[in-house]
Amino acid sequence: MQKVSIAGKGGTGKSVLTVLLAKVLQEMDYHVLIVDSDESNPGLYRMLGFHHGPRDLIDLFGGPRRVMELTGETDVPTQTLGKERIYLQDIPDRYLMGTDALKLASVGKITGAFEGCACPMAEALKAFLSRLVLKEREIVLVDMEAGVEHFGRGVEKYIDTLLILVEPSFESVALAAKINLLAQASGVKVIGGVINKIPSPAIDHRMHEELDKRKIKVLGVIPYDEQIAQACLEGKVLEGGLARESIRRIARVLLGEIKS
Q: Tell me: the pLDDT tens digits for 37-62?
């Protein structure tokens, strides 16, 4: 569990899970890099207490236009720091925010009308993940864009663990089934579902039934947490009470300390 992707329908709470999982792993003495790969979500950095985000990683590859010029028959060539391999300590400080144990990076954002699609961001993310080498007790959490386009771009080829975040809705469950199949086809080694925003034991039970029908292994359940909802509404730092404790258990499952 070194390169972890968090995927799912829009609004399920992927950024919340990413941030709280990172904080829990940090408390467990891991060094964590969060990669914000959602080109439209503006507020992940606020969840960590920052007033603005870091410089976009896509600039390490010459910017969006250069990235797309370099794609085609071959992958993006080695432009990042002129190296075939990238270690966390190689990334310049202006592309990161945070402490030594918990850092945030952002691939890039759509900032203006008629700017074009998010294809360059996906290509830059692939180039970054394919070259990134992690040492012992280093983990990367990728907060993916909503939906499944990143599978079409082949990003998951460089991911070893994928968490499918699911909320109690037909659309979320249906998309989770599709993500599960796409992740298997992409060669992701560990795939599991995380059920979020659960208001009652009855809904919890029903969600387990629905995911079991679709052969999605449930790694954990996160209850509805009013503290999280309030922080998200106000754009404040995420701490979490009930949610954080549930995510701590999910972290232990992922690390092999306990069974799901």
A: 877 777 788 889 888 888 888 887 77
Is the model more confident about 236 or about 118? 236
Single pTM value for the model: 0.89
- Residue 111 CB partners (closer than 8 Å, separation 6+): none
Distance CA 37, CA 109 (A): 8
Share of the chain above pLDDT 90, in %: 53
Task: Give dist(CA 169, CA 71) in Å, integer.
Answer: 38
Instruction: Determine the topology of domain 3-254 in CATH.
Output: Rossmann fold (3.40.50)
In the chain, domain spans: 3-254
Look at the alpha carbons of 238, 243, 249, 250 in this order and tell me if their dihedral is positive or negative: negative
Residue 96 is encoded by which pair of tokens? 């990161």
